[in-house]
Design goal:
This is AB hydrolase-1 domain-containing protein. The chain has 11 helices and 8 strands. It is of the alpha/beta class. The protein has an 8-stranded mixed sheet with strand order 1-2-4-3-5-6-7-8, with helices on both faces. Helix 9 links the parallel strand 7 and strand 8. It is globular, with a radius of gyration of 18 Å. The two termini are 27 Å apart.
């Protein structure tokens, strides 16, 4: 960890916090989800750098140590696509492998669609390719207390999270979202109320890890994170008949709650997803949770390295 270098890189007028290790000629750019940050990729960064690659993870705009845009409520996932390409430009990287976890899968794939010349291959964890647009996540098929529905409601998550220190919010989400059940609150509950205070942290997530995440979210808060991804998920991208022409790998933990989203498991297991990503490989990890890359890092590292070793860039 001490060999990971940290810097500020200006992209689109905002200073981004960038972590980097390795000097290989081929770059792997890691894209975090929520409630994650660059640090979520610590195991993968070290592994791919040891395998000869240049590993880069950064805090998206509005997250962690990166600067906030002037008007977060106007931002969408497309701003992250521009940010990824802008970061590649700033670091003088012509083409990279993109690895996205959770919502980070969405800009990873969108970048491959809109800027295919900049992407060697795409790897995603926990979230497959989703056709862009308002129907990507079908909230209407889940109860009103579905966490995405709740977090899309302006002010609701702010009030819910605001009852607790930032560290408690991160602890609660990490613990709840490590389970195989979709987080759904009752009518008289908020999402944070689902957490049982007697529940320990997952065994693969230390108090030191929690403190690191908390310190970064104490800096940024949750304002941008609630806008991107959650409140901008339904924005129409203007894309239609999308096909990803790049090689891709999906790593799914079979105990990931995302599998329980309506139609999601069938979409993946039936191969329907390959209608959009013809060169997709899918690997299942039986005990894997939504945070499989932190839970079982050696296996995930092996899968990533074996996949990118096969690709040209």
């Amino acid at each position: 960890m001490e060999k990971i270098q940290h810097s500020e890189v200006e992209v689109k007028g905002l200073k981004l916090h960038v972590a980097e290790i390795g000097t290989g000629s081929k770059a792997v750019v890691f894209l975090h989800g929520f409630p994650e940050i660059w640090y979520t990729w610590r195991h993968q960064m070290i592994a791919v750098s040891n395998a000869g690659y240049r590993a880069i993870a950064f805090d998206f705009r509005g997250y962690g140590l990166s600067e906030q845009p002037a008007d977060p409520e106007k931002e969408t996932m497309y701003d992250l696509v521009d940010e990824i390409v802008g970061l590649l430009d700033a670091l003088h990287i012509t083409k990279a492998f993109l690895v996205g976890k959770d919502f980070g899968a969405i800009p990873a794939y969108l970048t491959a669609v809109v800027h295919p010349e900049r992407v060697g291959a795409v790897i995603t964890l926990g979230v497959p390719f989703l056709p862009p647009g308002p129907s990507a996540i079908q909230n209407n098929l889940l109860p009103e207390g579905f966490y995405i529905t709740r977090w899309q409601e302006p002010g609701r998550a702010e009030a819910d999270f605001g009852r607790f220190p930032v560290k408690s919010v991160i602890r609660n989400i990490y613990t709840l979202f490590s389970r195989s059940e979709v987080p759904i609150a009752a009518e008289d509950q908020e999402i944070m109320d689902l957490f049982n205070p007697s529940t320990p942290l997952p065994p693969w997530f230390s108090e030191e890890d929690l403190a690191t995440y908390a310190s970064l979210y104490e800096k940024s808060g949750f304002r941008y994170a609630l806008q991107v991804p959650y409140r901008s998920l339904k924005v129409d991208t203007g894309l239609s008949d999308v096909t990803v022409t790049k090689p891709a790998l999906l790593i799914m933990g079979e105990k990931d709650y995302v599998f329980k989203f309506p139609g999601m498991e069938d979409y993946i297991r039936s191969g329907t997803v390959k209608n959009f990503v013809p060169e997709l490989e899918i690997t299942y990890i039986p005990e894997g949770s939504h945070f499989v890359h932190e839970q079982i890092p050696d296996k995930v590292n092996q899968l990533i390295i074996e996949f990118i070793d096969k690709q040209s860039i």
